[in-house]
Amino acid sequence: MNSSRRHFLRGTGVALALPWFESLPLLGQEKSAAESKPPLRFGCIFWSNGIKPANWWAKGRGAAMEFGPAAQPLTDIREDLVFIKGLYHQSAFVSTSPHLGRMNMLSGSPVSLDPTDIRVGTSFDQVLAKRIGQQTVVPSMALGIEPNELRLEDGLSMLYGSSISWTSPTKPATKEIYPARTFDQLVGDGKGRKLDRSILDAVLEEANSLKPKVNSGDRKKLDEYLESVRDIEKRIEIAGKQERLEGWRPTLKQPNMPRPADEIPQNVPDHMKLMLDLVVLAFQMDKTRIATLMLNNDLSQMNFKFIEGVRGALHLDLTHNGKAPELEAMYLKTNQFHMRQFVYLVNRMKGIDEGAGTTLLDNSLLMFCSNLYDGDAHGADQLPIVLAGRAGGSLQTGRALDYLEKGNENRRACSLYLSIMDRMGVKMDRFGDATTGLEGLWA
């Protein structure tokens, strides 16, 4: 990336990348129209164990779009999304492993069923990172809520279930679940260096000198931006004082050894919200343009008792419910909870002005997805996928696309990935099991 396009507030040993300001050319840096446009970001938010098919549908257009019960919370952002049905991965559909054989969400490659050979294919977010990641300090971020699991399931490594981002066919990207480490990566030197004091204190003097040089609109944006950084600092400090993880319990009621400091929030909603905020901050700072976030692992042991009406069952038990009415009702509540997390992210990004009448959401493409369709039956004949954002103006939102209903033979999810990579500036003749982009996506 041309360094002349970057603008920083600098303190002793640290630098804070600024958001995009319309008035920065007033500082004497001339840019072409193309160079002054905000960059395109890609984010993937994943939830595990699918949905109940009867509850997953959308119809209509724009403000008239309607949704099935599982997707109902998406109503709030219906004009900002594209609801996609019918896409699938052929290798997952034919896999004999009901769970881990479907954990190829972002690659479409076969999951190796040989316990001695961990292999699933490079995920397309990491293809993007290798091709365009050098344009930012952090090539990509792979985030999560639950830690990697090293146990075996059906004879296969749970690394499959703990990862959607793979830097190579045999190596998952390092998944970060600690908000503080993620924050350090964003406001430090990009390598996880922990800062000794507030980044805002380090750059305050230069920030004050910059304010008179930008217009009033950008001055307000600068103030809001700096305050958002301080807010996350405060929340990380509070989260670090908690002593337990929601969704995980130790085998002993009381620890039999001194417990190390733990900076992970004590409950799932706080943890998810904080990680979503960090995705927004990363994009807003332009520290990275590629991010994935796993809201849960496959075969998740997350406890959803924080949701009203959900009692005593782990996520895996709720999704594998044998069609028991009470468990199905709680399963629906967890689906709706996941939808609300995505709605929160979309609304946060929609509220960030990037100039020229656009928002951070306008200049991004978000994909919200799960690795199963029918969670109870391990169905992989379709994948629940929702896109949001306008991809720099190229994606028409407020639509529902059903590739089964269209009778379209090209319903490979990897065709969608080829189309996304193309919009991000990475052109490929083939990815996974697809050789063409997804028809009708950009219409």
Structure explained in plain terms:
The protein has ten helices and 17 strands. It is an alpha/beta fold and 443 residues long. It has one domain: Alkaline Phosphatase, subunit A, CATH 3.40.720. The strands form six sheets. Strands 7-12-3-15-16-6-17 form a seven-stranded mixed β-sheet, sandwiched between helices. The longest helix is centred in the C-terminal third of the chain and has 26 residues. The two termini are 31 Å apart. The N terminus is likely disordered.
How are the elements arranged and paired?
Blueprint: E1 8-11, E2 14-17, E3 41-46, E4 58-59, E5 66-67, E6 81-85, H1 90-94, H2 124-132, E7 141-144, E8 152-153, E9 156-157, H3 159-162, E10 166-168, E11 171-172, H4 179-187, H5 199-210, H6 216-239, H7 268-285, E12 290-294, H8 315-319, H9 325-350, E13 353-355, E14 358-359, E15 364-369, E16 385-388, E17 399-402, H10 413-423
Helix pairs in contact: 4-7, 6-7, 7-9
Hey, roughly how much beta strand do the residues contain? 5-15%
Low-confidence stretches: 1-5, 242-262
Head-to-tail CA distance between termini:
31 Å
Query: How many domain units?
Result: 1
Protein structure class:
alpha/beta
Q: What is the N-to-C order of secondary-structure elements (H for helix, E for strand)?
A: EEEEEEHHEEEHEEHHHHEHHEEEEEH
Gross morphology: globular
What CATH first level would be assigned?
Alpha Beta
Assembly context of the chains: single chain
